[in-house]
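Model the whole thing, not chain by chain.
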Amino acid sequence: MAKEQILELLQEDAKLSAKQLSVMLGEDAGAVEGAIKQYEKDGVIKGYHALINWERAETQRAAALIELRVSPQKDTGFDEIAGRIMNFPEVESVYLMSGGYDLAVTVVGRSMQDVAMFVQKRLAPIEGVLSTATHFVLTRYKDGGVIFNNDYEETDERGSNLCD
Amino acid sequence: MIDYDKLLNPVIMGIKPSGIRRFFDIANEMEDVISLSVGEPDFHTPWHIREAGIESLEKGRTRYTPNRGFSQLRKEVSGFLSRHYGVEYEPDTQVLITVGGSEAIDLCVRSLVTPGDEVLIPEPSFVCYVPITQMAGGVPVTIETGPENGFKLTAEQLEAHMTPRTKLLIMPYPNNPTGAVMGREDLEEIAAVVERHDLLVLSDEIYAALTYTEEGHVTFSSLPGMKERTVIVNGFSKAHSMTGWRLGYAAGPREIISPMVKLHQFAIMSAPTTSQYAAIEALKNGDDDMAYMRGQYDMRRRLIVDGLNEIGLKCFEPKGAFYVFPSVKSTGLTSADFCERLIYEKHVAVVPGDAFGPCGQGFVRISYCYSVKHITEALSRMGDFIREL
């Protein structure tokens, strides 16, 4: 069985059941279920989330991408500082980047002020953080491979043409 | 006042309009209809192919091409047929680029059929063969196929329909609407009859790239002795998701391709230039996209067959194209009633099987060129429909 196919299919739609996956892949349902369990155990599959368009949910929410320049520590490099940052519940993701800065941190709060406070009070003072640059997200057009903005959502323009 | 009825060609006036127009009108008026009715890919034309078309426009390459199509494209077609199906065609004399597979079918029938000639047409099948035959003055002789043979044509059926006027056999496999394919063994039986009765064959292989058997698609002309009797029709619509580009091709003996070119040059001049540039790119660098899309269709195919069987619509396993053709006889409804009630009660659109020939009565055509999510939702609504009947 091409196991990566299970991952690809689940990445697209986590709600597919093991039964559906097994039918689609022409495999035994038990084998697919076993493979998924193993992926979960091995930490390959880290979770199953709903992809929510918060703008539509009319919930107060602000998100920002923060570029951090940090000085790497002896022995641990960037790991220790990244470890401290990712422990904040406000932090959604932490990436170590190549290029002009070191860590890309996405932070979510109830308001822009919330996020700004978090950066000022929590992130910036961390020892080893040299500078921060906060970029607020204005609109999410696409996320997780899905188009969020209705105006850009594709409509099926195929007609019911019998002569096909 | 002009009485047009007296002036128009009675042959075209006598061709029955498709009976399901009304049904599509219902679907178009309704909101939140989930359609499983269309016969074209949901994938966009791969970007690199679109880009090749755009680039040709930017460079102002917007003139006629040679009547037969660009020589480079014919070379690529020839290479494609050789690489995938093991048949060799001379690009200069045995390949013609057409406006979709449909034009190639029309040209071939008109080049071969004279008034009174009989054309054998297995049904259920694509709706164009009968009218095209009639327009050429030929006599369409339909052959009913059914689920007992997996909707394949058998040698016995073929023999039973043979007369001294039989000239041409149309081979519509992989089949729209049933999804049936014919493997080498099946085709060998047919080839023997073709040989014995000295027939010509028009093999419509537009769905060749969408074959899900281990053996893969077998081109009719690859059978011993059949190349000189066969015109194969293929194209870019289904294999490369290029329906709107309107590009197909025919490959066959130069003696048949040559009159087809004659007709083509008078009616069409040359196939669209932009599309031909895109098609060159499709054949050069499109094999991976083709394999990817086939893989996606294959997954959906399994999902929908399993789903239909689960809700009690018996479904023979299709091995080609992107259609399933389940029987709705267990519901006691005709194809048309089934489709009409399904769309009114559950807002799901599928196509009545008898649109593809009278023997399609009792079946419906369901297309799976839709996302898994869309298919799953449609299946669930259909399940409710069956339970509530």
